[in-house]
Specification:
By secondary structure, the protein is an alpha/beta fold. Helix content is 36%, strand content 19%. The relative contact order is 0.17.
């Protein structure tokens, strides 16, 4: 990925850290997660071990802890100034990035790490997959092949959910998505109960997006976000990770007769590779190029991964 849109008048918008410099920023705080817990949080095909967590994600959780504490202090001061009795609102962290880049692992890991800090134990994770239009609706609109593109989401419902969270609503509900059936489950809801921190993960959390009429919306998802993380890697690496994950799923999840992709389970490896590369070329690659990657420069922090899935550079936006 190029960084041309991350410079203004020749000046970088970000401060860059390599692994060693980034790790040195955190205090000698014991890692609150065990190796078994980290293994459970790791996504399919992603790389994660104790050293990676200590080097990259523990310092990030400490930085986020400082941001959350400052926001809580500001909220308390504002309530006193206004004489308000309004409830404390969650600090919203957005995690964005391509399919297969590891953003879901990052979101789960940050949720686990942040929940261990004593001053904000209530941390909940929501993925924007639940706000995808149902397969029936996508078929009706002729958009099933564009699933994951901005227009395939119920943007109004997602904005309404975030508005309710930020308004301090005691309880909100989120649709649940099944990767097995490849569809939203209409009978299920995830209940969000006014957490200290809400981690919002998805392809579209930093995108400008357009309304169904093709106009720029008056309200953006990012209007409700307090801190954002973009998980980045070179497109050739992400494509390779996607194909490798597809091959693994062919032998695992796709083998389930209830899987939407069960028809791929018996493919030979060459045929499976051809299918995966075709899906990437038709859907995931163009979505990354035109919708996801352009949102990267809007993130507060960028995690740049190398070919081995390890984070090589951390880019923090200048305040």
């Amino acid at each position: 990925m190029t960084a041309d849109n991350e410079r203004e008048n020749g000046v970088s918008l970000f401060v860059d850290f390599d692994r060693e410099a980034w790790r040195a920023l955190v205090d000698a705080t014991p890692l609150p997660l065990t190796e078994l817990e980290i293994e459970r949080l790791r996504g399919l095909g992603d790389y994660l071990d104790l050293d990676e967590v200590e080097t990259v994600y523990q310092p990030l959780s400490r930085l986020l802890n400082l941001y959350v504490a400052a926001a809580q202090q500001l909220w308390s001061a504002q309530r006193g100034f206004l004489g308000s009795k309004a409830a404390k609102v969650p600090f919203v962290i957005a995690v964005a990035g391509s399919v297969a880049v590891g953003k879901s692992t990052t979101a789960r890991l940050l949720t686990a790490l942040l929940s261990r800090w004593p001053d904000h134990p209530s941390v909940q994770l929501v993925t924007t997959d639940g706000f995808l239009l149902s397969n029936a609706a996508l078929v009706e609109r002729g958009m099933l092949e564009r699933k994951g593109f901005p227009e395939s989401y119920d943007r109004r419902a997602l904005v309404r959910f975030l508005a309710e969270v930020k308004a301090g609503r005691p309880q909100t509900q989120v649709p649940v998505y099944s990767h097995l059936s490849y569809d939203v489950l209409p009978e299920r809801r995830q209940v969000i109960t006014q957490p200290d921190i809400l981690v919002l993960e998805g392809l579209n959390v930093l995108q400008h997006g357009l309304t169904s009429q093709g106009r720029t919306p008056r309200v953006f998802l990012s209007d409700f976000v307090d801190f954002s993380v973009y998980v980045d890697a070179h497109e050739t690496d992400i494509r390779r990770w996607y194909v490798e994950r597809f091959l693994t799923l062919r032998q695992t999840a796709f083998a389930d007769p209830g899987s939407y992709f069960h028809r791929y389970a018996d493919l030979s490896e060459p045929d499976a590779v051809a299918i995966a590369e075709g899906i990437w070329a038709a859907v995931n690659g163009p979505n990354l190029e035109h919708n996801i990657a352009p949102s990267r420069s809007r993130a507060r922090l960028i995690l740049q991964k190398g070919p081995d899935h390890c984070v090589r550079r951390i880019r923090l936006r200048r305040l």
